[in-house]
Every structure is written in C-alpha cells, then in structure tokens.
Amino acid sequence: MSIVIRPAICLVFGMLCAVNTTHALDLDKAITLPDAPVTLPITEAKGWYLRGDISTSFKTLNRSHSFSTFSVGNSYRAGTATNSNFKENSLSGGVGIGYRFNDVFRADATVDIFSGSGTVSGTSLDRCPGALGGTNCALTSSGKFTSYGLMANAYVDLATVAKFTPYVGAGIGATQVNWGEFNGTGSCIGGGCGGVADVNIKNSGLSQWRTTWALMTGVSYELSEKAKLDFGYRYSRTSSGKMFGYDSASTALGASGTQARDGGFDRHEVRVGLRIAAW
Question: What pTM value is reported for the model?
C-alpha cells in the first residue's frame, strides 16, 4: 500500500510546485512598475528675427518754436513766437533686425522714416522793409520735413494665451530731421504801416540729428512657428532742433546761422508689423 501512494504523492507535489512557479511568474508581471517618464529640458525660443512695420500717427505735437531776426545794426534780436501748426503725413514705416534671448526678453535695432509739414508764425521787434519806425514785422512761414530715425529697442513679452502675447518695451536713439525750404509772408503791423505791402520771404531749411526716446506696448499673434503679427502703440519724443536759416535779405546784411528752431516732436502712433524668425 505504501509503495503505491508514494509515487502519487510525488506527482501531486510536483504539480503544486509547477502551479506555484507559474503563479509567481504571473505575479511578477502583475506588479512590474512602468518605466519612469523621461523629462526633456525646456528649449528656450532663441534666435534672430527680421521685422517690418507700418504706422499712422493720430497725434503729432510740436512744442513752442523760437526764432530771431537780424537788424540793420548787425545785431540779432529774439522774436516772439505766436503760433505753430505741425502735421505728419498719414503713413510711415520702418524695418529692423532683432534677437530673442528667451521666451521673455528680446531686442532689436530699427530704421524708421516719417515726413510731414509745419507752419510757424511770430513777430519781430524790427520794422518791415519800407515801414515807419515804431512798427513791427509779422512772419508766417510753412515748410516740409523728412525724418530718419535709428532706434535700439528692448521688449518684455508677457504670458501667451491662445497664441496672443502682450508686451511692453522702450527704445532710445537718434532722429535726423531734414527741413526743406520755408516759404512765408512778412506783414507790417502797427499804426505806421500805411500802404506797406506784404513781402514774400524764403528761408533755407536745415538738418540736424536729435535725441529720440520711445515707449511701446501691444500684442503679437503667432501666425506660425516663425511668423508673428504685431499690433502696437508707440509714443516717441524727439528733441528740439534747427528749422531754417535767414532769408537772402538778412544774409546780405551779414546774418548767418539758425533763424528758427522747432520745439521737437511728440508722436502717438498705431503700428502694425510682421516679425519673421530668420535663423
């Protein structure tokens, strides 16, 4: 009896061992943890970009202008500025190249061009040619200008939401203001003018580089990975400078230098531009 049972017991024991081994393998598979996710480093958006902008100035202000006159006695006398009216042409534009340092900071250098016209008025302490003593001469003159600005700008891009990124920025640089010829009219004012006729006066325009600074804000929209559309506002301040020299009659008497200076420009612009990543 014992001889028959012993092989059976061995058979049952072997089957149990096989089952336990298979169960252990299945359990090992069941409790195997998944591989830990690989964390990739964040790549910052660096690189060069090109930009182009068009703008319209909805307000251009000129602070008080000043001018002087040259009398027969070879002396310069300050005139009294009475009025000034400056108008900028409807559209202006610019191009530039920039570099994005990371997702927040970028900077660029730009060249801008704008043009316009100005009319100035004032009164001198000297009498008009042919008028009696005790009278004065009033001048109203108009001219056009073209300006070229070189600016270095820096920007901070804020959080991006649905491809829109608001930003703020500031810039500093120089603007060359080129005034063309001024054509004006000299009129006698006062009780002793009598029948003194108005005289036509021409003054040569002057050019000068001037300091300019600007503040910007706006929002850009991502058209693609490389192109962004920019909508913005810019306020800029260009310092005062030369407008025109003396007319031919005054230079014949020995006058030289600058007769009139404008008070500089305060410009408020709405701008639309395109930025394209270059390389």
Answer: 0.77
Q: How many CB atoms lie within 10 A of CB 111?
A: 14
Contact 237, 216 (CB under 8 A): no
Give per-residue pLDDT as tens, 141-191. Answer: 999 999 999 999 999 999 899 999 999 999 999 999 999 999 998 888 877
Domain of residue 114, residue span: 50-277
Distance, in Å, from the CA atom of 220 to the CA atom of 273, rounded to the nearest integer, reads 9
Q: Is the dihedral of CA 52, 62, 208, 202 positive or negative?
A: positive
Closest CA to 124 of 276, 272, 249: 249
Is 213 within a domain? yes
Domain count along the chain: 1
Per-residue pLDDT of 113-146, as tens digits, reads 999 998 888 888 777 766 677 778 888 999 999 9
* Helix, strand, or coil (residue 74): coil
How many other CB atoms sit within 10 Å of the CB of residue 238? 23
The number of residues in the chain equals: 279
